[in-house]
Amino acid sequence: MKRTFIMVLDSFGIGAAHDAADFGDTGADTLGHIAQACARGEADKGRKGPLHLPNLSRLGLGKAAEESTGHFPEGLDKNAEIIGAYGYAGELSSG
Fold it and tell me: Which candidate, 25, 45, 90, 91, has a CA 20 to 30 Å from the CA of 10?
């Protein structure tokens, strides 16, 4: 039996919306900024080192972020075997 899981991570952005500049959100990228902070050692409280999300990487989170932003999040496994389909969405309404 095939299964489908749809994961919606509200307020966990992987890139900015097309109209982000209109709302002061140019460069929005929650995942990318968390990954950068981890890589710089700025998130070493209760954990240490680069962002490590092996299961989400295998589900395509890094690849979806790369398609959305044009860059792969630091610390995630770019060579992870993808075991599912992945994508990203953008809001259609203004704001």
Answer: 45
Q: Give me the sign of the Cα torsion angle 9, 88, 76, 69.
A: negative
pLDDT in tens, the chain (95 residues): 688 888 888 888 999 988 889 999 999 999 999 999 999 999 999 999 999 999 999 999 999 999 999 999 999 999 999 998 999 988 888 75
Q: Which pairs with CB-CB distance under 8 Å and at least 24 residues apart come from 52-58? A: 54/80, 58/82, 58/83, 58/84
DSSP secondary structure, 54-79, as one string: HHHHHTTHHHHHHHHHSSPPTTS-TT
Backbone angles phi, psi at 27, to 5 degrees: 85, 10
